[in-house]
Design goal:
Length: about 170
């Protein structure tokens, strides 16, 4: 007979910084950031897609880097800044969001928050990417509807807008 007891993970209180706001949360430190965002903080713009960091629907920024939060333990975000789709802009006026609207990118829309998060991270690193650089940066984001051509076109448009805004 096995005398070992099933031990539940211990919850701990930690502080995380999401969209510029500090939150005290009490969760298992190994809980994926995705579930903290969606279930604890009720920020539901970040989507669950595959759960294995392959589709990109759960993309958020961690200190400005695009990451897959479905496989990121919340403990690894301590002391770092997390930005979700809700934190990109209070209104949909970010150049990437505007380009998405102008180019009519979404079809079903499910993957779009992850696509936008990857695109905004790309444009911070590379303000004027080529088609190949866009394709490489966005290759981890899957769109079931196949809107890749519109996504690329929107990223080019957002790039032009951001470059114009920064030179004014």
């Amino acid at each position: 007979m096995n005398d070992s007891k099933n031990v539940l993970p211990e919850e701990s209180i930690m502080e995380i910084n999401v969209n510029g706001k500090k939150h005290q949360i009490e969760v298992d430190s190994d809980m994926p950031l995705l579930w903290v965002l969606r279930d604890v903080l009720k920020l539901t713009g970040t989507k669950y897609g595959c759960g294995i960091a392959q589709c990109g629907a759960c993309t958020v920024h961690l200190d400005g880097q695009a990451i897959r939060c479905c496989v990121t333990p919340v403990q690894s975000t301590a002391g770092k800044s997390i930005t979700t789709i809700e934190g990109v802009s209070e209104t949909p006026d970010h150049p990437v969001q505007q380009a998405w609207i102008t180019e009519d990118v979404p079809q079903c829309g499910y993957c779009q928050s992850g696509q936008i998060m990857s695109a905004t991270a790309l444009l911070v690193k590379n303000p004027n990417p080529t088609d190949l650089e866009i394709d490489n940066a966005m290759s981890g984001n899957i769109c079931r509807c196949g809107t890749y051509v519109r996504i690329r076109k929107a990223i080019h448009l957002a790039s032009k807008v951001q470059i114009k805004e920064s030179s004014s």
